[in-house]
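histidine kinase, Sporosarcina aquimarina. Tokens?
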Amino acid sequence: MNKISTKLATSFIISFLIMDTLLMVYLHQTITHARVNEELDRLLKTGSNHRDVLEDNYNETTLHHIILMESGGERDVAILDDAGNVVQHSLDNEEVLLPYLNQLNEELPTKDTILPVDWKESPYLISVHPYTAQGNSGSLVMLQSTIPIRQLVHRLNIHFILAGGGGIVILFVVYLLLSKWLTRPLIRMKEATEQISKGFYDVDLPKLSNDELGELATSIRTLSNDLSRVKRERNEFLASVSHEMGTPLTYLIGYAKVAQRTELDDAERFNYLSIIEEEAERLKTLVKNLMDLAQMDEMTFSVSRSEFSSTGFVRDIVQLVQPAFDMKGISLFTETGDDFTLVADRMRLEQIILNLLDNALHYSESGTTVTVRAFQNKKQAVLQVQDNGCGIPVDNQQEIFEKLYRVEKSRSRSFGGAGLGLAIVKELTEAHGGTIDVQSEPGHGSTFTIRL
Ligand SMILES: Nc1ncnc2c1ncn2[C@@H]1O[C@H](COP(=O)(O)OP(=O)(O)OP(=O)(O)O)[C@@H](O)[C@H]1O
Ligand SMILES: [Mg+2]
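Tokens:
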């Protein structure tokens, strides 16, 4: 039993059979009880009528008249004297009365009574009506055949069996429809996922329906698109990384060859070796940044938070970068306002601000200013790095946070950037549960804002 439709249909049929059986038993009981009670009511009423007539006028004619009225039908009457002997009756065979007479003789009722009999076992329902009239007394016994009730039960059974059988046929049709409507799309989706797992992301899944199956198909389509995008991005990323590493390596090999020339004097050789060192440093930074990002992607690095003062934090960073800004002739300012407590991974937060300051330094001309701010806004810690540099075109303001993205490849290349700094900043900020955004106008400068 491996088909979902078979499982569903089996559960349906079992539930249906349970419900059907309970309902039918209930209906069966209710209908037969109602019918038995109806017969008993009628028996009591007729019996008491006959008794009234008998008490009014007890004579042979009345007796004969009563017997005549009940002859030949499904009902019968017997009139007993006070000793319990049968005076008259309408039965074909008096014998049938015997078991009831025995029951009556044990205790003769003093008012209209229904004799407690089980209609399933007994051929008759019995009511007893005591009478006294003109010196005579005894009981009038009414008998109602249980055959019509039995016939009713039989008919009911046939109807119920037919209804149950019909229900099962309907369920079978539902099963066939289910296997068509449910299993087919599932099989198509299974085939599609198999295709995806083999690396064919271009799956063909039509819009199936608006239900959960349709949603599943949409998810599979989204998954295949995402996988295909990830594959494309990975290839692009590998190509960019190879390119980024290839360039410094070409320089390294080229300058190493030049440095080996015997005709060079010491100063020239020193110059080439310095270039080699610089390119090797650049490669080292690139590899370190790539490792950082890979770690962040794998979620294998952790943020260990501690509490520290905002002004102290900004002061330490500024001290660290001040010489580089002085060298390029850029004024570095701080606006820290009231001191507050920062709760973050101090080393990672330093890495964030250092990366932003590094960009501010690289993408600003000498004579401009860079400002570092730290303040609180609605219980949020806000850190800002603002520069008056070249700015970033609006179209590129989101892409700069992507790995290996640079606005102008040639421009950044001359500054030595690989396009990884902001990707690292973004990952680190998000690892802190914070956000980063940029406001920038080309030619006027940029402001990067971190909110923690
Ligand atoms: N303050 C800024 N002003 C102008 N452009 C910027 C600024 N910061 C970033 N950019 C642009 O965004 C791009 C991506 O920045 P990111 O820091 O990720 O890389 P990078 O600085 O080029 O290289 P890396 O940081 O890896 O050495 C940069 O190449 C630059 O074009
Ligand atoms: Mg950078």
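The chain has a mean pLDDT of 88.
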